[in-house]
Amino acid sequence: MRLGGRLAAAIEVLDDIERRHRPAADALKDWGLSHRFAGAGDRAAIGNIVYDALRRKRSAGWLVGDETSRALGFGALLLEWDQSAEALNQTLDGDKFAPEPLSASELATIANHKLNEAPDAVRADCPDWCAPLLERAFGAEWVAEGAALAARPPLDIRANTLKADRDRVIAELEGTQAAPTALAPHGVRIPPIDGSGRHPNVQAEPAFQKGWFEIQDEGSQLAAELAGALPGMQVLDYCAGAGGKTLALSAAMENRGQIFAHDSEKSRLAPMFDRLRRSDNRNVQVVSKPSELSALTGHMDLVLIDAPCTGSGTWRRRPDAKWRLTQRQLDVRKAEQSAILDTASTFVKPGGLVVYITCSVFDEENADQVAAFIERNERFKTVDHQALWSQHFPGRSDAVRFGEQGLSLTPARSGTDGFYFAAMRRA
Ligand SMILES: C[S@@+](CC[C@H](N)C(=O)[O-])C[C@H]1O[C@@H](n2cnc3c(N)ncnc32)[C@H](O)[C@@H]1O
């Protein structure tokens, strides 16, 4: 397929997402199934246009002067694919599968619309109702932070130190531009792709099958690192999901001590069993029933709460979630977070730590939750996060933002997904 056909397909998929309120991944998969002639390169290019259009929905629409799928598709190519409007029209000329080229009035709008003159929420590529949330979290930097959350993400990997090390993983991934991450000690980064390219399918690598590495954003690796799990500790990973953090904690503990991995949704824990086997993590016990946790009350050195959240810190990877999010969903997550903090913290022993993590950038889910928890539970005090950070990453306070209760990582500041981290010690 030429660019015109790929753009037309992307517009069709964007329409499907909008009309049927579908996740982007599902709509793309369906398109692929009903257009089997399209090759892997075509699918990657169509996926890139769709995801670029969703990440940059406001600015793409503003640039072309409309909010239709067509405007978003064209806008994405103009913003992210280094194409001028005139060059794009020339490329589409004579391609019978291409959408109608940009009209004279669209070309005039594009020529008149300078993105640096667009309203703030357009430059931040966020829904209007989220603008005050970002402004509260980032002050004068909120537009730049929003824009960074709308950029293409890298592919990050954590070398599994139980089986390999970072240099061996990088050597295995030769030819992929894999390089050490800036902060995470076992992290490997493959930079964001350009244009119609796609990241390598690293899960097809023999080294992945052998358990040498896991896919994990650098921010998630840093949060696990800062939690400070040590060999011999008793740890409860209370919202373990598929085990991204569990596996990192287990490697840090060198398989010594015990991790209890719990999640209220049994089905979310299911993929963990395969991951544990492949990675040779032998100190993890999966505990799906809440009743089986009661014996742990007051005995844990560390309780990790990787809380359910809006995921606003991962908008680069799941841009459709940005437009589906509602105030009501945020309120539901907030209620869940405070209930989980109260319950999970009962498992910490005196002198132990509860670590609260979200992949959200909103204060409402982060510092506010921690402040309210500490007010309700006077036995807990936050640790000195500046000291904790410089103990792990000396001289790199430029890469983090410290708040009164904890610290946060963002694409703009840290080059990672958005994460919040707060550690509280029980007296
Ligand atoms: C951010 S995800 C966890 C991701 C996982 N820790 C990782 O690193 O891959 C949050 C998890 O919290 C779980 N959860 C939601 N409410 C919960 C509750 N009340 N108790 C325990 N887990 C809960 C969700 O099912 C979800 O799997």
From TrEMBL:
PROSITE patterns the UniProt entry points to: SAM_MT_RSMB_NOP
Domain of life: Bacteria
The protein's name: 16S rRNA (Cytosine967-C5)-methyltransferase
Residues holding S-adenosyl-L-methionine: 263, 306
Ranges where the SAM-dependent MTase RsmB/NOP-type domain occurs: 145-427
Enzyme class: transferase
GO BP of this protein: RNA methylation
Keyword S-adenosyl-L-methionine set for record: yes
InterPro entries registered for this protein in UniProt: MeTrfase_RsmB-F_NOP2_cat (IPR049560), MeTrfase_RsmB-F_NOP2_dom (IPR001678), RCMT (IPR023267), RsmB-like_ferredoxin (IPR054728), SAM-dependent_MTases_sf (IPR029063)
GO molecular function, one term: RNA binding
Protein family according to the UniProt entry: Belongs to the class I-like SAM-binding methyltransferase superfamily. RsmB/NOP family.
Keywords: Methyltransferase, RNA-binding, S-adenosyl-L-methionine, Transferase
EC number(s) per entry: 2.1.1.176
Catalytic residues (positions): 359 (nucleophile)
